[in-house]
Amino acid sequence: xxxxxxxxxxxxxxxxxxxxxxxxxxxxxxxxxxxxxxxxxxxxxxxxxxxxxxxxxxxxxxxxxxxxxxxxxxxxxxxxxxxxxxxxxxxxxxxxxxxxxxxxxxxxxxxxxxxxxxxxxxxxxxxxxxxxxxxxxxxxxxxxxxxxxxxxxxxxxxxxxxxxxxxxxxxxxxxxxxxxxxxxxxxxxxxxxxxxxxxxxxxxxxxxxxxxxxxxxxxxxxxxxxxxxxxxxxxxxxxxxxxxxxxxxxxxxxxxxxxxxxxxxxxxxxxxxxxxxxxxxxxxxxxxxxxxxxxxxxxxxxxxxxxxxxxxxxxxxxxxxxxxxxxxxxxxxxxxxxxxxxxxxxxxxxxxxxxxxxxxxxxxxxxxxxxxxxxxxxxxxxxxxxxxxxxxxxxxxxxxxxxxxxxxxxxxxxxxxxxxxxxxxxxxxxxxxxxxxxxxxxxxxxxxxxxxxxxxxxxxxxxxxxxxxxxxxxxxxxxxxxxxxxxxxxxxxxxxxxxxxxxxxxxxxxxxxxxxxxxxxxxxxxxxxxxxxxxxxxxxxxxxxxxxxxxxxxxxxxxxxxxxxxxxxxxxxxxxxxxxxxxxxxxxxxxxxxxxxxxxxxxxxxxxxx
Length: 610
Fold this sequence. Notes:
Elements: E1 4-9, E2 14-19, H1 24-30, E3 49-54, E4 57-62, E5 72-77, E6 102-108, H2 120-128, E7 131-132, H3 134-143, E8 152-158, E9 161-167, E10 175-181, E11 185-192, E12 197-205, H4 215-224, H5 228-248, E13 259-266, H6 268-275, E14 295-298, H7 299-302, E15 311-314, H8 324-332, E16 340-345, E17 349-354, E18 359-364, E19 385-391, E20 397-401, E21 409-410, H9 412-424, H10 437-444, E22 453-458, E23 461-469, E24 480-483, H11 484-508, E25 517-521, H12 522-527, H13 530-535, E26 546-549, H14 553-563, H15 566-577, E27 579-580, H16 589-596
Parallel strand pairs: 1-5, 7-9, 10-13, 13-15, 16-25, 18-27, 19-21, 25-26
Antiparallel strand pairs: 1-2, 3-4, 3-5, 6-8, 8-9, 10-11, 11-12, 14-15, 16-17, 17-18, 19-20, 22-23, 23-24
Helix pairs in contact: 4-5, 5-6, 8-14, 8-15, 11-16
């Protein structure tokens, strides 16, 4: 018989019985307290810190490295994955004709009299050019037996096929949902398809974040956990995330069984995991996906809390690591000849260059650093995250913290501000090196910045750091800092993105000056200080080219697909004419990447000339 241990989550008065020897991280997840497993459980990110009492001894441990062999008390989970996150749900104004694939017919009992036709199905085909699925035909056979001659029926149709038949009680509503599956967050847009109004927008953290911050750690999880089981665990997590959001719509009067269409987008790994496809081919050269095409399954096959015969469509991919989320952004852009440069930067960096006639696309391995993951004090955009940062003329620092809470970490937009401000003020030099307090004072003298330069311990190493908030400034919370190691991670991400941009525009045959506009999609682009991003070279800088955010462009695209059947052909046209540039195969990538790792025009005006 398997031995067990008791794990007492004392902060919630919850005792959980677990198998002896199980990792504390797994126990926390099973007990309902998932953590941010940024590194996928390798013990390298330091984000799964838990304060426990084991054998009457207080300890601070990494849960992913701590097997539980005796009863313990869990006093505090430092970085719970279920902390409320700031999620971008807004998008640009939807501008499309209303002509959906999902529709309905309202008929009376007399309309079902077969007359000269040999069957009900034959009449539906002859009069309405509609075929009927077996489940709908079976349902209709029951309804037509009812004696009431005044009954009205609603036939729900997708394209030219009847997928359900119901008694029309007080003009029932039918619904469709557009879903943007992000690596970090998931957003659902639910529409009433009888009047084409947005019923509600629902968003949450992707439950898969408990097993890894980026797609690579999740692919490795599948490979390392008896492939099929690992895939099923991650599939269940994303399906559960979506179902939890759909369940929220019930309070808005939505009958889940009347949701007849779902349109989804996401990156290539999210596509594989949602559909239960083994993703390991995405994690090794030559990076091959199982399918780039539209994939349609039923609501039942997808496991979603919608009508079992609902049509669930995942938009097509554009490359192994250029996913349906990029496709969704591109279909949301105007159908004109203007050449645009589009960035969607997050755990993976995707770039597109072109117009409706032809796009070139690529992806860059910029890692999760731009979303705060993997940095010493990095975190997602939730309460306590530094989201903006500025150094004034007196060298005082100004922090903008989400919810005006004490600072506990730094999110993506804050990271770019910090890097830019430290570059502007000489704390970081043009090669990305952070100065020590002594080196800074020798260069610029003693000021309000020099006293914030210190040495801190990170993962058993002592490194240079800039203290953003001392405990005494921060309600006696732990100090928040930005380290040399963090600077290098951002430098590498910046280099990869800038190199990808240079190669893409060059291959397309234009210069930055010839681009019509630069579009930033996604949450990172929405909250980013564009001037600071340009200052560090993350985004190209040209006075004649406008840069603006388009909000959740992927969310816009799936909504358009839901509301206008013509978007399907637009997807096919974009996919057919697109060229996927694999950066690792470009002969000049390494050279350009190393060039873009440098920072130009960043020296302080009062820097000494050596």
